[in-house]
Design brief:
Elements: H1 17-27, E1 31-34, H2 41-46, H3 48-71, E2 82-88, H4 112-131, E3 135-140, E4 142-144, H5 153-162, E5 167-170, E6 176-181, H6 182-195, E7 201-204, E8 209-211, H7 212-226, E9 245-248, H8 263-269, H9 277-290, H10 292-300
Parallel strand pairs: 1-2, 2-3, 3-7, 4-6, 5-9
Antiparallel strand pairs: 6-8
Helix pairs in contact: 1-3, 3-4, 5-7, 7-9
């Protein structure tokens, strides 16, 4: 894919103002989709500064570069230009056993990661209102699918299980998340980018609420089908992947439940998730089973911390 004629890969820090200004001058983008972020909550608790730099400072740099391009009167930076900032449902905080996050739900971030994303959202809103930058914001639920870094819940459980290592589950495993396949998320972003109203926010959810314990059990069941524990030498030739589940102390400020009300993007833009969750999860487990070399390269390169 990297040799596609319409693709140019530039490896740079979005918080590097000089580097981003050069990118904007060279390519004069008609749209910016800001998916760049430090996103692992556990690391934000131990190393919050990198989240401030990437998520807050980096977003402010991109906003300023976009504003400069529009102010310059470039034909591609005019009425058709759009800035799509991809945020998270975590900015809303924690839900009780009922209800769902709506676009008008108040912000109540509880982790350094969530706080950094909330701050970035407010910057986008300010640049939209103050400078008339045609910006949009989306708030997505937990993504899953191929090529997700091994630090995240689903790939971490898959790889630990295959290696016969413990499957760490925070607290009682009852924390609830709404799961969205990455393909469905990408389709939503393209729809918002093309048809959304600048200055507005759109919640993007999969409608698949599951406890963390349920997710781990489903991963184990898929592994038992695709790579049976009985034939896995890492488990001593017997047992079940579920036997590897290990409950560990809960992390600080762990939100109990997230749930997305995606009725706005469905009603106004006609987007709905298409990937059935159980099939999507099974396909994801199969991909990691078949691509352990990719995961090993990510780990050896120090990309997972």
């Amino acid at each position: 894919m990297l040799d596609h004629p319409r693709l140019t890969l530039i490896e740079a820090d979005i918080a590097d103002r000089a580097a981003m200004e050069q990118v904007f001058r060279a390519h004069r983008p008609r749209a910016v989709v800001n998916l760049a972020a430090e996103s692992h909550v556990d690391r934000s608790i131990h190393r919050p500064r990198s989240f401030i730099d990437a998520n807050i400072v980096g977003t402010s740099v991109l906003l300023e570069c976009a504003r400069t391009q529009m102010a310059g009167g470039d034909r591609r930076g005019g009425a058709g230009f759009r800035f799509l900032h991809v945020s998270t449902d975590e900015v809303y905080g924690s839900l009780g056993p009922t209800g769902r996050f709506r676009e008008d739900s108040p912000y109540a971030p509880n982790s350094p990661y969530a706080a950094s994303k909330a701050a970035a959202d407010h910057l986008v809103r300010a640049w939209c209102r103050t400078y008339r930058l045609p910006a949009l914001v989306t708030h997505c639920s937990n993504n899953y699918g191929e090529y997700q870094f091994p630090e995240k819940l689903i790939p971490l459980m898959i790889l630990n299980a295959l290696d016969g290592r413990p499957l760490p589950i925070y607290g009682d495993g009852g924390h609830v998340r709404d799961w969205l396949h990455v393909d469905d998320h990408c389709a939503a972003l393209l729809r918002v980018l093309s048809d959304g109203t600048p200055g507005e926010r759109y919640n993007v959810g999969g409608g698949n609420e599951r406890t963390n314990l349920e997710i781990v059990d489903l991963v184990c069941d898929a592994l038992d089908e695709l790579s049976p524990a009985a034939s896995n030498p890492a488990l001593g030739g017997g047992g079940s992947y579920r036997a590897l589940k290990t409950f560990v102390p809960d992390r600080p400020g762990h939100d109990r439940r997230y749930a997305i009300d995606a009725s706005r993007i469905a009603g106004e833009l006609g987007w709905r998730p298409r990937r059935p969750f159980r099939q999507g999860l099974r396909d994801t487990v199969r991909w990691y089973v078949e691509h352990r070399d990719w995961c090993a390269r990510r780990l050896s390169a120090g990309e997972v911390r």
